[in-house]
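Final report, closing paragraph on structural work. Over the funding period we assembled a curated collection of sequence-structure pairs, and we close with a single example.
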Amino acid sequence: MRKHIVAGNWKMNKNLQEGIALATEINDLLKAEKPNCEVIIGTPFIHLAKVSEVVDHSLVAVSAENCADKASGAYTGEVSAEMVKSTGAEYVILGHSERREYYHETPAILKEKVHLALANGLKVIFCIGESLAQREAGEQEAVCKAELEGSVFHLTPEQWKNVVIAYEPIWAIGTGKSATPAQAQAVHAFIRGHIAKKSQAVADQVIIQYGGSVNDANAAELFTQPDIDGALVGGASLKAPAFAVIVK
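Its predicted structure, as stored:
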């Protein structure tokens, strides 16, 4: 039986004080009504250490939104996987479409980031998904297949235990236009089936989240689908009450 994971991705929002307040509010809401799934909040780098201090890690895990593709050295402004781990964070989000598009992260770069994250004891939420043009051309399966094979397909079954896949159709991120439960389920089933070609055991246990305008109104229906194991939540994760409803 796969567990469900609801993760928030704050993106580039909230100053340090606001971030601590939001994390505290989420923690308090979950303390009042303990979740029956794993809950993660993904924060900007500057929040990680403080947020890690204020949350109860038995209720809320903490994630970075990125890490460097180098272990250390003269890379001004970069934050390594080892640095992320040292803050108390347990996860890192890698491969988000915004990183791929705006910062030109290639499958090879992401493969190295995944390697470094796992080597430093972090779990990885690895994002894949197609653009609107690719969806309209019927290429969503080909895109997901290529992104999986480019960065995570080489992992051993043991390493896969620390990888969560997040299917995020780019056309649904921040647009208010979510994939229908049937559309999302179809791609989730394809992803699981493609992973099964490598290892049925890995496919059976890997957690596949849906992301893309998930909110407190549409989450419940998405979660009824057999291959959707939770959500990677954007905008709604910035409002503690809405995020708590999704968790519930």
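Residues 25 and 240 are 6 Å apart (CA to CA). The chain has a mean pLDDT of 97. We thank the funder for supporting this effort.
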